[in-house]
Amino acid sequence: MTFEVHAQGAVHVFDCFACAIHRMAPICEHCRVQIIGQGVEVEGHWFCGAHCARAEGKVGIVDKV
User: Fold this and answer.
1) Among positive and negative, which fits the CA dihedral 46, 48, 50, 54?
2) Is residue 41 part of a domain?
3) pLDDT, greater one: 9 or 65
4) Pairs from 25-29 (Cβ < 8 Å, separation ≥ 24)
5) Which distant-in-sequence residues (6+ apart) come within 8 Å of 53 by Cβ?
6) CA nearest 49: which of 28, 23, 20?
7) Of 18, 21, 38, 65, which is least packed with CB atoms within 10 Å of its CB?
8) pTM of the full predicted structure?
9) Is 65 among the domain residues?
10) pLDDT (0 to 100) of residue 65
11) Domain residues for 43?
12) What is the pLDDT of residues 3-57, one digit of tens each?
């Protein structure tokens, strides 16, 4: 059994959630970890959290708790 994920004008077909996560999860632009769950998007750039965003010079970013 497969399922489709429609994102940014493309259709991706997967047979398990783990494969979908591996393919679709954004990568933190500072520490390179896959962001599964809450991430931080700043000016079109993805970070795993506020710490990594600040390490890249982004200001005013806070984690939501």
Assistant:
1) negative
2) yes
3) 9
4) 28/52, 29/56
5) 30, 40, 42, 45, 47, 61
6) 28
7) 65
8) 0.76
9) no
10) 64
11) 3-56
12) 999 998 999 999 999 999 999 999 999 999 999 988 999 999 999 999 999 999 9
